[in-house]
Write a structure and sequence with these properties.
The structure holds two protein chains of two kinds. Helix content of chain A is 33%, strand content 20%. Chain B has one domain: MetI-like (MetI-like fold, Orthogonal Bundle), CATH 1.10.3720. Chain B has 14 helices and no strands. Chain B is elongated, with a radius of gyration of 23 Å. The chains are: A alpha+beta, B mainly alpha. At the A-B interface, α1, α10 and α12 of A face α8 of B.
Chain lengths: 534, 301
């Protein structure tokens, strides 16, 4: 009963929030209008709010959109790709055995609170994660660097300051994507003074070295950022103010853009892309695809513990039509659990094409000649990799009905959905993943290795050979050899079919035509430092 | 009210004492109702939809959930009279099957609330005192919520499905019927024939179900037909919010919700289910008005 009343309460709250949302959007529209001279204000609207503003403690893309403006990483990605370029570290050296990295930091950089950025600050940040041994709080640290201080499988052994501007990382074993990992937003450097000052409240008061200073966070509404006048990169940022706003519904968000209430939005519905194209006051941005939307089977549950059942269902899905119909040209059908833009992609794999006879035959062999009944979980919110999960689920439901598998679509609130998936409660579910660093490890190891069961391996797929190969690939520094290992892994996964990979989408963003210098980064997170509005 | 105008002057002067005996009150009501053109029109609409619902399997040109993704959003044509939706499903077919669901929800939920409401209302009205106090306060509490909010709360507790939406709609209509019956019972029980029945020692049960209830039926029937209209709208509203029928059930409200993004691109996906809801609701409302005219004893001659 308690829970049900809390649901009723949430509904009432949502309704009142919707009302307050209406009033404040008017206010923002007015302030956005009078950007006279100067850099002006950019209002960016997205579908969900940040969870926390301390980048180290979150894993969701919506949080990083905000934190990437405030905090910066040692190394960074190139503006349009995942090539590693200097960030707060202007240069670095790797030892021959690949176990020691030495970073030379930018001099004279200051945090927003006036304290200096130096080697001690970097060491303080890493020790905060590294010595915490808290995989729940610092989830990304655990998944990218395999463990904490003193743990056998951990990548990092020690982080120490050589002098004021030099930091040295010692590793237990070489890690091929080490630099790419360091460039990820969760490993951005925060002000040690601020972390000590705010304690538990640091998640609401981020202080970094970035182009924008955090000003205010109204939960589920707006995050306000102001220009960092003392930014260490000369001439940047160009904008005076950035407001990151939540507008839940995709169509409503586009309408706000058309009406001029906001300047830039993400999550444009594929069906509304033409509306943007035909409006001369707007421009369309297409994020390069680095994601995967999939249908996952929980391989621990009957009947999906049987490989033949999983293969049968793979044969039953009319993938091409689904992708054509619900992505409307903004996606490619997928056959592997990682996108083709990433090195190591195995293009020689022959996908499970639509073949109902084969599907029925496999079901029969597996002992289900008349099919079975099963819940199909579908996400309640539009995601970049799947703009309309509910409808895709409905199409899959109809495909499955043709081979006698009766699926019931189950859905719930997004946070609950993820929680229950992580617990392994869903027998069959829709989900996806946007790559963080452009490395195959970030897809195959993060999503399908047995180490990731309980974090991101929602289908609880466990294959010792895959595990062995993936760990081998992590330490292999020869690019070609490493790619061969990943190709082999994809073959095994294809045959085991723990997922039906559905699509690699090209997420669509739209903005006013006066916006210059914006590029939607493949990782989903980009700095607004060199964006301007004319 | 307007119904006074449609009440035509006495048109059965040939009624003689002999055949007056055989005309039951129901027959008489039908005679009055029959003369009301607008009410007959409403009845026609409802009968039409009932026939659609019953014979859906043989009338519908396509399969209810026959997806053909390549046929997305075809405009109305000779092949698809009402066009197709974003799954390439024939909208005419789905509207026809939708009649089955909406009428089913309307009739069953209202029957449910009439049964429960009448029982509670009779008990409250006949026994009075503290029983009346408790039951009436429960009705007051239920009526204090806006009905759709109460329905949402009930569905939130039970979980979203068509069946639970039906239960929710039944619950929110209970107090309406309960109060109606209660007030009727309060006046009926003062009638002399009830006193007479008591005097000859009839049991409470017999008095309640053989004398009080039949004499309180008329307003219930009127209210019932109007309530079916509201119930259909509420079911559609819950379906629209994703709290009623679940995919791929072709419930009209759900069809509207599924197509709301295509208002400008494919308006037929919204127009036809919307029209179907409007017509059925209109039909039941017209019947309700006609019945009120026919059953109100004060308008009899």
């Amino acid at each position: 009963m308690k829970k049900t009343w809390s649901i009723a309460f949430v509904i009432i709250l949502t309704l009142s929030l919707a009302l307050t949302g209406c009033s404040s959007s008017k206010k923002n529209g007015a302030s956005g209008g009078n950007d006279d001279g100067g850099g002006g204000t950019l209002i960016y609207a997205r579908g969900g709010d940040s969870v926390k503003l301390d980048p180290a403690t979150v894993t969701d893309g919506e949080s990083f959109i905000a934190t990437a403006q405030v905090t910066e990483t040692l190394v960074d990605y190139d503006k349009e790709s995942t090539k590693v370029v200097p960030g707060l570290a202007k240069s670095w050296e790797m030892s021959k055995d690949g176990k020691t990295y030495t970073f030379h930091l930018e001099k004279g950089v200051k945090f927003h609170d006036g304290t200096p950025f130096n080697a001690d600050a970097v060491v303080y940040n890493f020790n905060r994660w590294f010595k915490s041994k808290d995989a729940k709080t610092f989830a990304y640290f655990k998944s990218q660097f395999s463990g904490f201080e003193g743990e056998k499988e951990a990548v990092i052994k020690e982080v120490k300051a050589i002098d004021d501007n030099t930091v040295q990382f010692t590793l237990n074993r070489p890690q091929a994507p080490f630099l790419k990992n360091l460039a990820m937003s969760p490993f951005a450097i925060s002000s040690p003074a601020a972390i000590k000052k705010y304690g538990d409240k640091y998640i609401e008061h981020p202080v970094g070295t970035g182009p924008f200073v955090f000003k205010e966070w109204k939960r589920n509404d707006t995050i306000t950022l102001e220009k960092n006048k003392d930014y260490w990169k000369k001439g940047l940022p160009k904008l005076d103010k950035v407001i990151i706003k939540v507008i839940k519904d995709n169509s409503a968000r586009l309408n706000a853009l058309v009406k001029g209430e906001v300047d830039l939005i993400d999550g444009v519905n594929p069906s509304e892309v033409d509306k943007v194209k035909s409006n001369s006051k707007l421009q369309l941005f297409e994020r390069p695809p680095m994601n995967i939307g999939y249908l996952g089977f929980n391989v621990e549950k009957k009947p999906f513990n049987n490989k033949k059942v999983r293969q049968a269902l793979s044969y039953a899905i009319n993938k091409k039509e689904i992708v054509k119909n619900f992505y409307e040209g903004t996606a490619e059908p997928a056959k592997n659990p990682m996108p083709p833009t990433i090195a190591g992609y195995n293009d020689s794999i022959q996908d499970y094409d639509l073949d109902l006879d084969k599907a029925k035959k496999l079901l029969k062999e597996a002992g289900y000649p008349n099919g079975f009944k099963m819940d199909l979980w579908a996400m309640p919110v539009p995601r970049p990799y799947m703009p309309n999960g509910q409808k895709v689920a409905e199409a899959i439901q109809s495909d499955f009905a043709k081979i006698g598998v009766k699926a019931k679509i189950v859905t719930m609130e997004w946070a609950t959905y993820l929680d229950k998936l992580q617990d392994g409660q869903a027998p069959m579910f829709m989900l996806g993943w946007t790559g963080d660093n452009g490395d195959a490890d970030n897809f195959l190891y993060a999503l399908l290795d047995k180490d990731s069961i309980g974090s991101n391996n929602y289908s609880r797929y466990k294959n010792e050979e895959v595990h062995k190969l993936l760990l081998q690939a992590q330490t292999e520094t020869d690019e070609a050899k490493r790619n061969d290992i990943y190709k082999k892994v994809q073959e095994i996964i294809h045959d085991d079919a723990p997922w039906v990979p559905l699509a690699h989408s090209k997420p669509q963003l739209a903005g006013k035509s006066t916006i210059k210098g914006f590029f939607p980064h493949p990782t989903g997170t980009q700095s607004f430092a060199d964006v301007t509005i004319e | 009210m307007a119904e006074l105008a449609t009440n035509t002057p006495p048109s059965s002067p040939e009624v003689t004492p002999e055949n007056e005996k055989v005309i039951s009150p129901w027959k008489e009501a039908w005679k009055t109702f029959r003369k009301n053109k607008i009410a007959l029109f409403g009845l026609g609409i409802v009968v039409f939809f009932i026939l659609l619902a019953i014979f859906a399997d043989s009338i519908a040109p396509y399969e209810m959930n026959g997806q053909k993704l390549a046929d997305k959003h075809l405009a109305p044509s000779s092949e698809h009279w009402f066009g197709t939706d974003d799954f390439g499903r024939d909208i005419l077919t789905r509207v026809i099957y939708g009649a089955r669901i909406s009428l089913w929800v309307g009739f069953v939920s209202v029957s449910g609330s009439i049964i429960i409401g009448s029982l509670l209302g009779i008990v409250a009205g006949y026994y009075g005192r503290w029983i009346d106090g408790i039951i009436s306060r429960i009705f007051d509490i239920l009526l204090a919520f806006p009905s759709i909010l109460l329905a949402i709360a009930v569905v939130a507790i039970l979980g979203p499905s068509l069946q639970n939406a039906l239960i929710a709609i039944a619950i929110i209509n209970v107090p309406t019927f309960g109060r109606l019956i209660r007030s009727r019972v309060l006046s009926v029980k003062e009638e002399e024939y009830i006193t007479a029945a008591r005097a000859i020692g009839m049991s409470d049960m017999r008095i309640l179900f053989h004398h009080v209830l039949p004499n309180s039926m008329a307003p219930i029937i009127v209210q019932g037909s109007l309530a079916i209209a509201t119930a259909i709208i509420e079911a559609a509203a819950l379906g629209f919010l994703g709290l009623g029928a679940q995919a791929p059930t072709p419930e009209w409200g759900k069809m509207l919700a599924d197509s709301k993004d295509f208002l400008t691109d494919a308006p037929w996906t919204l127009f036809f289910p919307g029209l179907a809801i409007m017509l059925t609701v209109l039909g039941f409302n017209l019947i309700g008005d006609g019945l009120r005219d026919a059953l109100d004893p004060r308008m009899k001659n």
